[in-house]
Design goal:
The protein is an alpha/beta fold. It contains 8 helices and 8 strands. Strands 3-2-1-4-7-6-8-5 form an 8-stranded mixed sheet, sandwiched between helices.
Length: about 220
């Protein structure tokens, strides 16, 4: 059993080192961390730290997740971001929930202390191989039509329609989004300014596509 933690990063080189330290401190299970990078400062920081990175032109979060999925071969992938804080013991409950589904597994979602439905997820590679994360898209984790927001919602809702989704509150991967207002939240920045507006366009696309898994 192995887990690849997939982390698209955009213009946040300062997040690489503390995130790696946080993952190392809270994840005794076999794992590897893979970054998608594009800006020079982040690329240089990954090089300095010897972190595994896949360099692109700064694509969307769904496309970067899909590409990192193809470039890894671990049994499970954790769809991550750079604005999170892993709490101790986060991975074991997600893996246990995968086993409770069946040998193929599915999508298990930790609490993020912000969104009651969760934001990130542990996804079984077997699930993607057998079903795909989206209807009629074999081998694809996230629908590439989303710019950012709502892509994970389609993944969750599709898995629910197949009885292959589990929300696991015992696992906590805290979302440090500035809108939480918590003292440890990250400040609003240009990366958030790029992603936040996709809430509306993503929502419209989600409504249009909902018929695919609600038949």
């Amino acid at each position: 059993m192995s887990v690849a933690i997939l982390v698209p990063v955009l213009d946040r080189p300062h997040r690489i080192e503390p995130l790696l330290a946080n993952i190392a401190a809270t994840t005794p299970e076999p794992h590897e961390v893979v970054f998608a990078t594009s800006d020079n400062a982040t690329i240089e920081e990954c090089n300095r730290l010897g972190a595994w990175q896949s360099i692109d032109d700064g694509d969307t979060w769904p496309n970067r997740i899909n590409r990192l999925f193809r470039e890894t071969d671990d049994d499970f992938v954790f769809l991550c971001a750079d604005d999170v804080l892993f709490h101790p013991g986060w991975l074991a409950p997600l893996l246990e929930a995968q086993g409770d589904i069946d040998m193929i597994g599915g999508v298990t979602v930790p609490a993020d202390l912000h969104n009651p439905y969760g934001t990130l997820a542990l996804v079984s590679r077997s699930y993607i191989a057998h079903f795909g994360g989206c209807v009629n898209e074999p081998g694809v984790v996230l629908h590439s039509g989303y710019e950012h927001c709502w892509s994970e919602t389609e993944l969750f809702e599709t898995a629910k329609s197949r009885a292959r989704h589990r929300y696991v509150p015992e696992s906590v991967v805290e979302h440090l989004h500035y809108s939480t207002g918590r003292s440890n939240a990250l400040p609003n920045d240009a990366t958030y300014a790029k992603g936040d507006p996709t809430m509306w366009s993503g929502g419209e696309l989600f409504v249009q596509r909902r018929r695919l898994w609600m038949r």
